[in-house]
Amino acid sequence: KFFFCQTSGVQNIPEFVVVGLVDGVQKSYYDSNTGRPEPKTEWMKKLMKDDPQHLEWYTDRSFHTQDLFKGYIDNLRKRF
Description:
It is built from two helices and four strands; from the N terminus they run E-E-E-E-H-H. It is α+β, with helices and mostly antiparallel strands and about 80 residues long.
């Protein structure tokens, strides 16, 4: 599971956050302040270390999704 959160104009909170879970355990975290994924389990740390392409994929997907969510928020602002 992935949980996404997009904010706008909220101080001290990243504009965009992604939290990844497997079987209810947090495996990864990404936010727009750091701009890079953080593995939260040992097996995820190993995967990202052993397979740099997975880390690159995860980073690219996070950036892409961040842009999509920003577009959604901008579109909603124009309508309301």
